[in-house]
Amino acid sequence: MRLSFCLFICVTAAAACLGATNVASSAASSLQPGTTERANVRPPQETTLAQRAEQVRMECIEGRRYVCGRVLQVFTNSLVVDSGYTALLNPPFNRSWVVRGNVSVTKSPSLIEEKKPDAVCVGLVLLTNIPKRPAVKAFDYVVIHGYPAGEYKYVPVPGVEKQIRQFSASLEKAVSTNLAASEK
Q1: How far is CA 84 from CA 68, 81, 141, 168, in A?
Q2: Would you say residue 19 has pLDDT above 80?
Q3: CB-based contact 99:141 (threshold 8 Å)
Q4: What residue ranges do the domains of the chain occupy?
Q5: Which of 32, 95, 43, 97 is nearest to 71 (CA)?
Q6: pTM of the full predicted structure?
Q7: How far is it, in rounded angstroms, from Cα 14 to Cα 50?
Q8: How high is the mean pLDDT of the chain?
Q9: What would the mean pLDDT of 2-23 be, rounded to a whole number?
Q10: What end-to-end distance do the CA atoms of the chain give, in Å?
């Protein structure tokens, strides 16, 4: 169900991008002389949803960050990562999205996250929709693009709650998560 909804959103957004420039003029020009039949024009709700999906997609791309850091906690399909280890972006570490925990890299204490695509993400984040292979263990390192997908209530120890940013390794999942959150 969710996959078909995501596919519908993507197809609708692509159609809106390709055909939204002159919907009124193309509808008027498709009338045959002497006929009163109108061309098929998308309903306003569908166009609005497609435009919103494309807007959310562009926001996700603009908010894309490199999540490069140490894995602190492993869940079924997500990881809590202390991001900001910029050395992981350089060879030989950048050959796979997972770097085993036996390497020696340090985090720069003065690193500040820039507000542009492909900047290095700094701080604790939840990374969802991660690839299945290779398997990740606690205290391994990861290097992967993440797309903003809301916030997560992280509980490092019982009784302590912390709001951290959530990123998705999949652009499509980030778009669908953000669209679902905006509908609430």
Answers
A1: 6, 9, 11, 17
A2: no
A3: yes
A4: 2-61, 65-183
A5: 97
A6: 0.73
A7: 8
A8: 82
A9: 44
A10: 19
- Looking at residue 15, its pLDDT comes to 45
Radius of gyration of the chain (CA): 21
Look up residue 62 and give its two tokens: 């603009």
The secondary structure of the chain as a DSSP string is: -HHHHHHHHHHHHHHHHHH-TTHHHHHHHTSPTT--PPPP---HHHHHHHHHHHHHHHHHHHT-EEEEEEEEEE-SSEEEEEE--GGGGSTTGGGSSEE-TTS-----TT----SSTTEEP-EEEEEES--SSS---TT-EEEEEEEEEEEEEE-SSTT--EEEEEEES-HHHHHHHHHHHHH-
pLDDT, position 179: 92
The two three-digit tokens of residue 163, written as one number = 């709001």
